[in-house]
Amino acid sequence: MASNAAAAAVVGSPRPLRVRAPVAQGLATMYLGFVVLLPLAALVWRSTRAGGHGFWAAVSAPEAVAALRLTLVAAVIVAAINAVMGTVLAWVLVRDRFVGQGVVNALIDLPFALPTIVAGLTLVALYGPRSPVGVSVAFTRGAVVLALLFVTLPFVVRTVQPTLLELDVEMEEAAASLGAGRLTVFRRIVLPNLVPAILSGVALAYARAIGEFGSVVLITGNLPFKTEVSSVYIYGQIQSGAPGTAAAVSVLLLAISLAVLLLIGAVRRWAWRHGS
Amino acid sequence: MAARYGLRVVGLGYLAVLLVAPVGLVFWRTFEHGFSPAWHAVTTHDARHAFWLTILIALIAVPANTVFGVALALAIVRRRFPGKGLVNAVVDLPLALSPVVVGLALLLLYGRLGWFGPFLERHAIHVVYALPSMILATIFVSLPFVVREVVPVLREIGTEQEQAASTLGASSFQTLVRITLPAIRWAIAYGVVLTTARCLGEFGAVSVVSGHLVGRTETATLYVQDQFEGFDLTGAYAASVLLALIAIGTLVAMNAFRPKEETR
Amino acid sequence: MSIVVREISKSFGDFAALRDVSLEVPTGSLTALLGPSGSGKSTLLRVVAGLERPDAGEVLIAEEDVTGEAPQRRGVGFVFQHYAAFKHMTVYENVAFGLRIRHRPRAEIRERVGELLRLVQLEGFASRYPAQLSGGQRQRMGLARALAVDPKVLLLDEPFGALDARVRKELRAWLRRLHDETRTTTVIVTHDQEEAMEVADRIALMNEGWIEQVGTPRELYERPANEFVMSFVGPVNRVGDAWIRPHDLELCAEPNGTTQEAMVERLVHLGFEVRVELVRDDGAHLSAQVTREEAAALELDVGQIVYVRAVRQTTFTS
Questions:
Q1: Among C42, C53, C82, beta carbon nearest to A4
Q2: Domain assignment of residue A136, yes or no
Q3: Distance CA C76, CA C52 (A)
Q4: Cα–Cα distance between A111 and B244 in angstroms, integer?
């Protein structure tokens, strides 16, 4: 875009114009540090206060381990289901046309806009003990998956939609003219181009699912070793006056979330390089 | 074709079962016995206080995150400084954290046994189990949205308009106010909508730091949980419906301001 | 309002964009900075505008040293290749911008903007948005905007580069007429030698951060300082040490002592002129340019043998 062609190409854009004084930039960074970094520093410090031994004892407590296992497994299941259903929904919203499509498109964002506790409440109402259709998943592990599916609904849909929109229909037409059937076209032409977007959405959904609290709290019954997820376990530890153990498990959970975020970054770079 | 209808049925069916039916049921249950009981349930003293508190927190958190969010976005896109990558990553952190962990972190900083605990106690400043910590928690979890919406737009616009303004004699401030901000106003608007939705819906972090003091430190979301666990289903449902209506309002705003690449 | 640039150097990391460049732009002239990509012409223009800070050297505008000054205070009008239109403002607001921030009275602004829109032939477009204009219209708006604040000098950075060929030619002529009317000292950056030759009073030809030659278009064409200038400014044949312009190659039907034999490979009819592409028996390719009449007189056709000699040639001693 810059008009000094070669120089710009060599070193990037011309020196950025000073739009705001350095003071404003410093203030903004301090805000960030005060709001986000400082509390997290306190968290990490507290988690290590009992030393490596204390940390390990906290995270290897049987209940903590059970909660973590449930959390991670449920998140994987939910990610997998989202990969499929998210793509289906994105497809239906982009490639199909029907009355009320705009409303459906808007509805996808509802799980984001709706408070998680309200989401949990609606699920308990329909799929809990007082279910009018007699279906109850309350107090089961299925409830965890159900709640997580609700809150992670938008992620894959919203990452796949723009990719589908940009996809050059001519590619598919070319394949069809060469004799490829519809399923083949999808498998060999469309899907490979969607995979980076799907993965991106899946990673976001997974990161969200690991930490989810409000929606699972009502419907699962939070039974230790059975339907208790990590966030609920941490909450319980706080209430029991054991912030140290809570901190340790939190830091472990945070480390896992960060690992997933790094994965998102790597996936995005991969996708970008392979021209999505 | 069968495939098209099949996909449509599967997709819409999934949505119906997972999303529409549960939410629809709660709406039904709320108004099952008429509008009046629902209205009464949501206008009790505790309910009104809870909603008022939620709005108050949002009124503080949203402007704060908007102003600093725009400043951060400008710094990230337009300036070079050491640690810029770190700033970028830290902005995204709240999205990767469980809200309960956020609440815990705040407790460990401002709580009685936290870093600032003794200092705050000596000066009788109440942060945890009081409004300030709830505000801080809400700011924390809703921080990324304005930044993330503004950064790509700022990048795309490039600096040429700003350079043109400077050759025409505009000072840095004039350029910012007359050229840069108007150019990103829709991105800011969308970011504000997302931030507001997140603030109004915050539950986990606020649950940890508030102490659940009914009528004092209960937000609307905490109120819902409280009513449910106290077996006041009508109260819980009515409050939920009100929150859901606000959420639907948010959806409308989101669709109005959504950046063009995502719509049909 | 002259521009003087003295010993300007500028590097971007390892890349030396400008090496000790000095140039004088006389008041009221239209000077072109011509050169290939990477020659430093845009960088030099931006240094004059204050959009880049030089590593060394001085910039004087109207005999005042502005080397350390921000762009706001230099009184330059700058026109960008991609228009840099304020997308959220109407044409009127774009052109009025410089006046508005100087807090000129509304009536004065209205009059001045009206005058300028007439000057650039965009009257009636005042309430349109840049997105509703064509590229050529947007660039005319950019010019009006830059002129609105009575700049001491006008700087144009490849202003027609993003436009299609026909619009480019129109705007070139239009710019020249505009300059003749306003007499503002103007510097235009271009990589198109035809554009520079057509539009400018003086050309500074740049290459790899140096200025190779400064002069009128005619001087550069007829008395090039070196091989680079000669080959950049127009088509040229190279035969050993000799550099020969296509129209300086005479074609004869019969040999005489000084001619060389060549075969016609291709004839390109460019309206009034005919370009004759020739090949000698040692494989060297030559390009000659003759008028339609000359081509007809020789009955030129593909495969024909003709006899070629240079009426005029240039050699450079290095």
A1: C42
A2: yes
A3: 14
A4: 10
Domain assignment present for B39: no
Question: With pLDDT > 70 as the criterion, what percentage of chain B qualifies?
Answer: 98
All chains having 3 or more CB pairs closer than 8 angstroms to chain C: A, B
Chain B residues with beta carbon closer than 8 angstroms to that of C87: 161, 183
Chain B residues touching A158 at Cβ < 8 A: 262
ipTM beyond 0.85?
yes
Q: Report d(CA A172, CA B89) in Å as an integer.
A: 38
Model confidence band, residue B96 (pLDDT cutoffs 50, 70, 90): confident
Is B193 exposed, middle or buried, given 0-12, 13-18 or 19+ CB atoms closer than 10 A?
buried
Taking phi over 0 as left and psi of -120 to 50 as alpha, with beta for the rest, A140 belongs to: beta
The H or E element containing residue A220 is none
Contact (Cβ atoms closer than 8 angstroms) between residue A198 and residue A87: yes
Q: What is the pLDDT of residue B264?
A: 36
Q: How many independent structural domains does chain B possess?
A: 2
Q: Does A218 touch chain B (CB under 8 A)?
A: yes
* Domain count for chain A: 1
Please check whether residue A14 lies inside any domain of the structure.
Answer: no
From CA B50, how far away is CA B240, in angstroms rounded?
Answer: 12
| Contact call for A10 and C43, based on CB within 8 A | no
Residue B135's pLDDT band (cuts 50, 70, 90): very high
Question: Are residues B65 and B73 in contact, defined by beta-carbon separation less than 8 angstroms?
Answer: no
pTM score: 0.81
Q: Which residues does C202 contact at the CB level (< 8 Å), separation at least 6?
A: C25, C26, C29, C30, C31, C32, C214, C215, C216
Chain A residues touching B228 at Cβ < 8 A:
121, 124, 218
Nearest residue in B to C145, CA atom: B168
B25 and B97 in one domain? no
* B18: containing domain: 1-32
Q: Are residues B4 and B129 in the same domain?
A: no
A217, part of any domain:
yes
- Please check whether residues B77 and B206 belong to one and the same domain: yes
**B37 in any annotated domain:** no
For residue A7, which residues of chain C lie inside 8 Å, CB to CB?
12, 15, 17, 38, 40, 42-43
Q: C225-255, pLDDT tens digit by residue?
A: 999 999 999 899 988 888 999 999 888 888 8
Let me know whether B26 and B91 are in one domain. Answer: no
Chain A / chain B CB contacts < 8 angstroms: 285
> Which pair of tokens denotes residue B196?
């507001």
Q: Tell me the CATH number at B137.
A: 1.10.3720.10
Q: Do A7 and C15 touch (CB under 8 A)?
A: yes
Q: And the tokens for B225?
A: 């949980």
pLDDT band at B82 (very low <50, low <70, confident <90, very high): confident
Closest CA to B138 of B220, B225, B62: B62
In a domain, A44, yes or no: no
Which chains lie within 8 Å of chain A at 3 or more CB pairs, if any? B, C
- Residues B9 and B72 grouped into a single domain: no
Shared domain for B73 and B11, answered yes or no, is no
Give the pLDDT of chain A (276 residues) as one tens digit per residue.
333 444 434 333 344 444 446 787 888 889 999 999 999 999 999 998 888 888 999 999 999 999 999 999 999 999 999 999 999 999 999 988 899 999 999 999 999 999 999 999 999 999 988 888 888 888 888 999 999 999 999 999 999 999 888 887 777 777 777 777 777 778 877 888 888 888 889 888 998 999 999 999 988 888 888 899 999 999 999 999 899 999 999 999 989 888 877 776 687 677 666 644
Q: How far apart are CA A95 and CA A113, in angstroms?
A: 25
C32-90 pLDDT per residue, tens: 999 999 899 999 999 999 999 999 999 999 999 999 888 888 889 999 988 888 988 89
User: What's the first-to-final CA gap in chain C, in angstroms?
Assistant: 37
